[in-house]
Amino acid sequence: MKKLLIILYVLIPLTFWAQYLLPNEEVIYSFETKTRKKMFLVKDKTNKYIQYRFGTKSKVEMEFPAERTKESWKKFHYNSYWRGGGIQNSGMEIDNLSFKNNGYEYLLFRTYHAEGEVYTAGIIIKDSKGKETRINGNYKTVKGCICNLEDTKMIEKEDIGLSF
Asked: 8-40 b/e with 16+ CB inside 10 Å = b?
């Protein structure tokens, strides 16, 4: 009986994470929202694809794109800004990743502002009429960084503006 409990203790979390992370994948950026939902941006370990996933503990509610191919990289747009501190400037970092799906524009963001040591993460969703919905992330749960996309050489920086 004790062995069965140990096996269940190990398998239940693995089943949960399996929905968000396949064996051939690694996390680029992830966080938990204030409502306990999870956002994962993952990629194949050999850069065959990139995919966004969002949902609850028991169900992935959205995957984008649906197909896991090399073409997936072209569906995302990346931008970042970094400013060192100094007498005249407060240091800051902003990373944005956007994509469009079913008439909505999604923007994943991560920011740091040296003044006040403020960190933020989240998702901004804009509908076709321009109405925005903001989903705030719990920064204490952030793993990875959108900024690591530059290292893959699979996505180029674009002037998509900066939002947060």
From this structure: eeeeeeeeeeebbeeeebeebbbbbbeeebbbb
- The token duo for 160 is 């998509």
Give the pLDDT of residue 163. 63
**pLDDT confidence band for 14 (50 / 70 / 90):** very low
DSSP code for 34: T
What are residue 26's DSSP bridge partners? Answer: 43
The Cα 151–Cα 134 span in angstroms is: 28
pLDDT in tens, 27-80: 999 999 999 999 999 999 999 999 999 998 788 999 999 999 999 999 999 988
Residue 145: pLDDT over 70: yes
Q: Bridge partners of 63?
A: 53
Nearest to 29 by CA among 164, 142, 157, 162: 142
Rounded distance between C-alpha atoms, residue 120 and residue 150, angstroms: 20
Q: What are residue 125's DSSP bridge partners?
A: 106, 133
